[in-house]
Amino acid sequence: MGAYPLAAAFAAVEDDETSWASAARAGDRAAFGRLCDRHRRCVRGILLARAPRQELDDLAQEVFLRALRALDTLRDATSFGPWLSAIARNVATDRLRRGPAPNRLPDELPGGDPTDGQATAILAEIRRLPETYRETMMLRLVQGLTGPEIAAETGMTPGSVRVHLHRGMKLLREALQARGAHVG
User: Fold this and answer.
1) CATH architecture type of domain 1-100
2) What is the C-alpha to C-alpha distance for residues 120 and 103, in angstroms, rounded to an integer?
3) What is d(CA 164, CA 178) in angstroms, rounded to the nearest whole number?
4) Where are the alpha helices (DSSP H) in the chain?
5) What angle do CA 83, 160, 13 make, to 5 degrees?
6) What is the per-residue pLDDT across 13-66, written as a single tens digit (0 to 9) for each?
7) pLDDT in tens, 146-169
8) Domain with CATH 1.10.10.10 in the chain
9) How far does CA 57 lie from the centroid of its chain?
10) Separation CA 133–CA 35 (nearest Å)
11) CA 63/CA 3 separation, integer angstroms
């Protein structure tokens, strides 16, 4: 193995993804399924940053259906993640334009696990962050993606991701402290 085994591992993953994207564009549904599985957490994080939690599954399905129908517009097979992220943002924006869902249950219902209330409060504070930081914070804190994963998925530079996470975390801490809560 070479001097940089981690770099070789990342290159192998990128090669897999590029070949899967090329195969998907040629009509291979199994390859498209592997791509969807790989990018599911990112799509859900992007949607969660912008759309009602109760609609997350339906919106994620819509993202993948739109992507499947639009595969012929993917110009660069190496950019599947950022391309799919853009589709997710568009789906969330379209959802917000439609207005509130009819007969929607409130985010907080009586009873249940008290930690759910704290998680809901943190999620609400993340959603109140400026849009610049909201998506990266959601991808990191809720979906568990690392900084390099966020950069690869969204097309942002690693430096921008670090700055967004740092500033977003600072704003989140301040907001939670003002509410009497805290985050690690």
Assistant:
1) Orthogonal Bundle (1.10)
2) 20
3) 21
4) 5-25, 29-48, 56-69, 80-98, 114-128, 131-137, 147-154, 158-179
5) 50
6) 556 889 999 999 999 999 999 999 999 999 999 999 998 888 999 999 999 999
7) 999 999 999 999 999 999 999 999
8) 113-184
9) 13
10) 26
11) 39
- Residues 111, 82: Cα–Cα separation, whole Å: 40
CB 20 within 8 A of CB 34: yes
Q: Which two three-digit tokens encode residue 139?
A: 């991808």
User: Count of CB atoms within 10 A of residue 27's CB?
Assistant: 9
Report residue 135 as tokens.
């998506």
Q: Are 115 and 140 in contact (CB under 8 A)?
A: no
Distance CA 45, CA 25 (A): 25
Tokens found for residue 157:
């530079």
CATH architecture of 113-184: Orthogonal Bundle (1.10)
Nearest to 153 by CA among 135, 166, 141: 135
Residue ranges of the chain that CATH labels 1.10.1740.10: 1-100
The reported pTM is 0.74
